[in-house]
Amino acid sequence: MEEVDKILIHALKQVGTEVSEETGSVKQFSSELIVEAVVRCVRVIDSGLGGALPTSLPPGMSARFRVGMSLAQACQDIGYKGEIGYQTFLYSNEPEIRSLLMFLVEKLPRESAETSDQPQGKSAVLQRAIAAAIKAQLSVPWLPPNCRLPLHSETQSPGALHRFHVQPLSLPHCSPGKKQLKEVKDYHRDILPPVTAQPSHHASVVASILEQHTAELSAAQEWDNEWNSQGLLSRLKPQEYRSRKLTRLRKRIQEQLRSAAQPSPESALGGPRSTCDLSELLQAFRGSAPSDHILTKGSHFTHTQKFTFTQTETSASIPFVHQSDGDVQLRQQEEQLSLQQQLQQLCSEVDQLTADMKHMTVTHAQVLDELKQRELGNSENVEKMQVKKKTIDLLPDSDDNLEKLKALVEASAKRVVNLASQWEKHRAPLIDEHRRLKEICSKQDLESSKKLSEIKSLHDKIRVSTEEAKKKEETYKQLVTELENLPQDASRLAYTQRILEIVSNIKKQKEEITKILSDTKDLQKEINSLTGKLDRTFAVTDELVFKDAKKDESVRKSYKYLAALHENCNQLIQTIEYTGTILREIRDLEEQIETENGSKTVANLERILSDYKAIRQENSALAAKVREG
Amino acid sequence: MELCESVQRGLQQLADPSVFSPSSYRELLEVCYRSLLSSQADPGALDQPELKQVEQISLKQSHTAATTFILEAVKQNADKSTISSCLEELTFSAERIDMFYNAHQKHKKELEHLLASIGRCPRHINDVTWRLQYHVKNNQVDKVNEPFYCISLNTENEGSSEDINFTCTVEQLQDLVGKLKDAAKSVEKASQM
User: What CATH architecture applies to the domain A2-114?
Assistant: First the structure.
């Protein structure tokens, strides 16, 4: 029973019942503890059923009674077949409680126990580690900044933090396959600083290195995935596949750009304008700093313009010195006017000229086109003329020429037929060859696709097995860590060992029982044979003595004694048997007394009495209240 | 621990005794840790007499690979078995693995600190001073008669302290206190996994 009780208590503790360390058996359970244990079990088994039940007994007697009743009802709803009522909980007796608890523990859902056996995922291990770290940090008392030791500075003072700022690093790649330029190599060898010195802020070294590594790794993974899924099917070498993908992408980008750049009908004017804008923007961007530089390098026109302007200025400034003010003003105005007129004239002339020029270019183009057309027509005409000339030449000797022509036609027809037959001759083997090659090709195709699928499946297998290996390694590690973390009382192992011990004990006992049984059988046999022997010897002696008794007086006496002896012996045996049965009865009764004692009848009776009194008091109090009310 | 191809190549070079002699191997490890942990960038970190005999390009590659490996190991909190199995795959000899691991253990704390210094962190509250004031009236209302709290949080960030001042009503203060309690509770909950 002790083992059973231990298992029960262990299970109850797992459910959440607070069983103190001292209670080692169900016998020591108090009513409160029983109620709590049963309620918790019921809650785990059926949360809807147990949700309404309180885990502790209320103080009032009638309320206790009600709780007991509802608990008993809940247990019956779950499926408990044994006898149960409020008395089971309030006036407990050991065997009943044990059977009830055993039933409930068996009913507990197994999954919770199984999941605790399963190895938790990586995340669970990580979370546990995080929890442990937080716990450790929480256990350290907070200290004001002045009292902090370096030990605390890690967690309690934030220290200098900087952002995850990444700068691109340049690494000296030298893959064996690629040839690099000598200059690049020289640069890598002599000038490139080590990676840790490359970022402009030393603080971003770590971030940059980590980022670089992760980027490279993820790119490699991406490529692997793509190659396995699509690249293998394309039956190209990796480089070819890459270049093809590159051209495809370029084409797509070009198409996208073209479609975006194409002017939609309503914004036909907008299209070129936007390109204009772009070029302007580029111009502005390029020319913002050295704009005057561009001006100095300007066209011939600007040069001449400048030249004329400076000339007029100098020519204007020369007379300015000699004349009087009014004259000067008048003359200046006149000059200005005339100059303006001149300018306007010139401008209009220029405009006209440009318009003329445009017109001229257009007409020139038209004329050129016309010329081309004419030339074409000319050449055609020349050809026609030649044909006609030939026919005219042939006309005078028409019959003869006709014959000749017919002969020519016939000959050419024959030649055609001949050629066709020759072609047929050549064609048949060529077609055969073609078919053969096609077949070979298709075969090879089939083979290659087979091999491809094989390769693919192999790749898959490789991937799957590597993943499995990784997973297994991880689970192994987790299990190791879990094993290290596990509390040292390996309850399961102990239980199984105990169960095995118990089983072996039972086996031994069984053997002993069978031994004893065979012993008793032997004894019974002996007893039977002895009684038979006794009967027979008695009958023989009885007969012998009876014969002699008629003759001799002393023998008669001895016969009487014999009879008396036999009778007495029988009586003795009977009394022995009787005492045996009585002893057995006594033992039974003693056992009964023990069980009765175990069920705490007296104590329970006393408790029932006191509870009864309490109920009466409550009732009378209530009655008094009613009366008062 | 997964490593990309260039790092693997660099580490394989580092493992090769014909490229890195034992003394230059030790020196390169030292240089790696020093260049990561020093407060200033040192462009001449690799100009060591022991490293003169190594070809400069492979030296730089190995340096990059080794620093990357070190940082990854610290980032993933790799234990000895992980590190040694990883290096074994890259043909490191047992002696070199031991050397690497010892150096790693020596500098692990500092490196962890270095990694932990990436990020941001709100200001830490060090102290609180408060004052209960009573709002009697203002220019719009003649009788207000409300208590309010003036609270000053003394905060600290990267060693510099700053006061954050604000006022709040009783309800707002209760709300704040409740939220702080929630936060404390959830931290405690997180520690009991």
Answer: Orthogonal Bundle (1.10)
